[in-house]
UniProtKB/TrEMBL annotation:
<dbReference type="InterPro" id="IPR014762">
    <property type="entry name" value="DNA_mismatch_repair_CS"/>
</dbReference>
<dbReference type="InterPro" id="IPR020667">
    <property type="entry name" value="DNA_mismatch_repair_MutL"/>
</dbReference>
<keyword id="KW-0540">Nuclease</keyword>
<dbReference type="InterPro" id="IPR014790">
    <property type="entry name" value="MutL_C"/>
</dbReference>
<dbReference type="GO" id="GO:0004519">
    <property type="term" value="F:endonuclease activity"/>
</dbReference>
<dbReference type="InterPro" id="IPR014721">
    <property type="entry name" value="Ribsml_uS5_D2-typ_fold_subgr"/>
</dbReference>
<keyword id="KW-0255">Endonuclease</keyword>
<dbReference type="InterPro" id="IPR002099">
    <property type="entry name" value="MutL/Mlh/PMS"/>
</dbReference>
<feature type="domain" description="DNA mismatch repair protein S5">
    <location>
        <begin position="209"/>
        <end position="327"/>
    </location>
</feature>
<dbReference type="InterPro" id="IPR037198">
    <property type="entry name" value="MutL_C_sf"/>
</dbReference>
<dbReference type="Pfam" id="PF01119">
    <property type="entry name" value="DNA_mis_repair"/>
</dbReference>
<dbReference type="Pfam" id="PF13589">
    <property type="entry name" value="HATPase_c_3"/>
</dbReference>
<dbReference type="InterPro" id="IPR013507">
    <property type="entry name" value="DNA_mismatch_S5_2-like"/>
</dbReference>
<keyword id="KW-0234">DNA repair</keyword>
<dbReference type="InterPro" id="IPR036890">
    <property type="entry name" value="HATPase_C_sf"/>
</dbReference>
<protein>
    <recommendedName>
        <fullName>DNA mismatch repair protein MutL</fullName>
    </recommendedName>
</protein>
<dbReference type="Pfam" id="PF08676">
    <property type="entry name" value="MutL_C"/>
</dbReference>
Length: 618
């Protein structure tokens, strides 16, 4: 029998490829705008007629193309942007497939005009359905203009599939927004059927958002900034009270590329938990910068989905950064401390100073006639011995210095360490004034410039421990203390299954499992701050918490583990705290990302301003 396999002619192959690249006019808009950006333009104009069905034109002032390049640009797999597959992991450009122009030219009438800066004359090429009609030398300004007419002229089925002009224009505007938001330093304008619909001058990010979404947007933006080793976040979220039902204003950009991610969207939603009305969607405009080597943008032909190496960590950092911003926004007017920008780095390894609540040191609600100058509990040499197990957990890792892991651990955990030390080194300092008071072995009272702070000690400590654990789990840096004899615990088979499921996260906090067999768990190491006697209680608590919450994925299991351990280990109501213990707790609380609520969303402190107090005395 004769051979039957033949190679498809180029124009057919291009038409097939076009099906992937060009779904609708908006796809052409995206490709052309991205090419203009890749050409280093600083001003880009988009012209649309009949929602792109009649004309899509992009004019840029970028670097243009030589006559040869102009011709080559329409060949399939013709790209100036990558040379080898390795380059895919170093991408700094939008395009890289070299398919867009070839695809577009296969299914439309295309006219290109382009000129490089150092040339007198430019080139114009007309192509219809992959066929070059003309190529000529012309006079044209620096940059490139590409017009796409009669889209899908040779594929009537595709043409008939297009939606109404309103719908197609909506898609085009969405693409335009995405590209314009990702590049505020480039001026963009858009004309539709002869009317200027957008005119966006070069600006900063906030102005770009406002120029696109309207002046009212300005007051609703809450800045989000976070720098860690793996991820930098900058941008804005919308204040909760402005949230609408639509998801129109949700933007993630990764390395200046718009992406969609249900998972990261979930991180934002969970940061807004409890703040939104039912069904309301938070708005966000967030730029994430990661090392290009840690992402793979190549998994989706239209490139709005990307794959991250370590999504869990990004999730945790993003969620915490947004929560922190929202928290700051809520409490900033009440508390009088300036936000320390260094605070924004919970997951980095940099050593940080600890911000503290600005305390009015002369305030003393229980002041009697004697001046407050007697030594406080700070000087008590028996301090360490007095302290209960839970209290030790405030000083995670302080005891065992020297080993390398412990050192790293301290760097991560004890942002406030220098300050801790000064608390304890102050033994001779008799001048130290008392600035916190414990009420009913339950509340810690402290002062701020504008009034008084009442802190729930149990909830506050839960918050502190929760963020510690979450940090340890996320960066897998928990430190364990070896047990002399392994601890043997017994569980049901269902419970064993749960422990197995959480094993990795538990290990990140410092647990070491010697074996998990049948109904018996042998534990040979526990996190440094966890007393051996508490281990079985912690695990039981954890199992019951997990069973009640039925986490459906890893990240909520992590969260649950941190919550559960924090709950088990936090200072209880009824426990007496010395003065330095109180102060330390207060400082650690306000070093938290989200000091105002416990891990289970309960209020950790309230403030009472002098004004409010004055009213009570009227
Ligand atoms: P890709 O962008 O993936 O490289 P395209 O088909 O979109 O593939 O473009 C092919 C090539 O044509 C690009 O690599 C670039 O060199 C050139 N090109 C396309 N548009 C422009 C433009 N507006 N300005 C300068 N060069 C361009
Ligand atoms: Mg391109």
């Amino acid at each position: 029998m004769a051979d039957i396999i033949q190679l498809l002619p180029d124009h057919v192959a291009n038409q097939i490829a076009a099906g992937e690249v060009v779904q609708r006019p908006a796809s052409v808009v995206k490709e052309l705008l991205e090419n203009a950006i890749d050409a280093n333009s600083d001003s880009i104009k988009l012209i649309i007629k009949d929602a792109g069905k009649t004309l899509i034109q992009v004019i840029d002032n970028g670097k243009g193309m030589s006559a040869t390049d102009a011709r080559l640009s329409f060949e399939r797999h013709a790209t100036s942007k990558i040379k080898s597959a390795d380059d895919l992991f170093q991408l700094n450009t939008k395009g890289f497939r070299g398919e867009a122009l070839a695809s577009i030219a296969a299914i439309a009438h295309v006219e290109l005009k382009t000129k490089q800066d150092d040339e007198e004359l430019g080139t114009t090429i007309v192509i219809e359905g992959s066929e070059v009609k003309t190529q000529e030398v012309i006079v044209t300004p620096k940059g490139t203009s590409l017009s796409v007419k009669h889209l899908f002229f040779n594929i009537p089925a595709r043409r008939n599939f297009l939606k109404s002009n309103t719908v197609e224009l909506r898609h085009i505007i969405d693409e335009f927004h995405r590209v314009a938001l990702a590049h505020p330093s480039i001026a963009f304008s858009m004309f539709s059927n002869g009317n200027e619909t957008f005119n966006l001058p070069q600006s900063n990010y906030r102005q770009r958002i406002v120029n696109i979404f309207g002046n009212k947007t300005n007051e609703k933006l809450v800045p989000v900034e976070e720098t860690t080793e793996v991820l930098t976040i900058s941008g804005f979220v919308g204040k909760p009270e402005f949230a609408k039902k639509s998801r129109n204003e949700q933007f993630f950009f990764v390395n200046n590329r718009f992406i969609k991610s249900a998972y990261l969207n979930h991180a934002i939603n969970s940061a807004f938990e409890g703040l939104l009305k039912d069904g309301a969607q938070p708005s966000y405009y967030l730029n994430l910068t990661v090392n290009p080597q840690t992402i793979d943008i190549n998994i989706h032909p239209t490139k709005t989905e990307i794959k991250f190496d370590d999504e869990h960590t990004l999730y945790a950092i993003l969620r915490s950064a947004v929560k922190h911003s929202l928290g700051q926004f809520n409490i900033a007017p009440v508390l009088d401390f300036d936000r320390d920008a260094n605070l924004d780095t919970p997951y980095s390894y940099e050593q940080k100073g600890m911000p503290s609540v600005e305390v009015d040191r002369s305030f003393n609600p229980f002041k009697d006639d004697t001046p407050v100058s007697k030594p406080t509990a700070i000087a008590s040499p028996s301090f360490k011995k007095d302290t209960g197990a839970s209290w030790e957990s405030l000083y995670v890792g302080l005891e065992s210095k020297g080993t390398k892991t412990t050192k790293d651990f301290n760097e991560i955990t004890f942002e406030s360490q220098p300050e801790n030390e000064s608390i304890f080194k102050n033994e001779n300092e008799v001048e130290t004034k008392q600035t916190t008071y414990q009420l009913n072995n339950k509340f810690i009272i402290s002062t701020i410039k504008s009034g008084m702070l009442v802190i729930d000690q149990h909830r506050a400590h839960q918050r502190v421990l929760y963020e510690d654990f979450l940090r340890h789990i996320t960066i897998k840096e928990g430190v364990s203390q070896q047990l002399l004899f392994p601890l043997e615990l017994h569980f049901s088979s269902q419970e064993i299954a749960l422990i197995n499921q959480l094993k990795e996260d538990l290990e990140s906090t410092g647990f070491v499992f010697q074996s998990i067999k049948d109904a018996t768990v042998l534990i040979s190491g526990v996190p440094v701050n966890v007393p051996e006697s508490e281990v079985s209680i912690i695990l039981e608590q954890l199992i019951s918490d997990v069973e009640n919450e039925v986490p459906d994925s890893n990240f909520s299991a992590t969260d649950l583990l941190a919550k559960s351990m924090a709950k088990s280990l936090a200072i209880k109501t009824g426990q007496t705290l010395t003065n330095p213990e109180q102060e330390h707790l207060v400082n650690r609380l306000f070093g938290c990302k989200e000091p105002n609520v416990s891990p289970t969303n309960k209020t950790t402190f309230i403030t009472m301003t002098v004004d409010e107090l004055d009213k009570k005395f009227m």
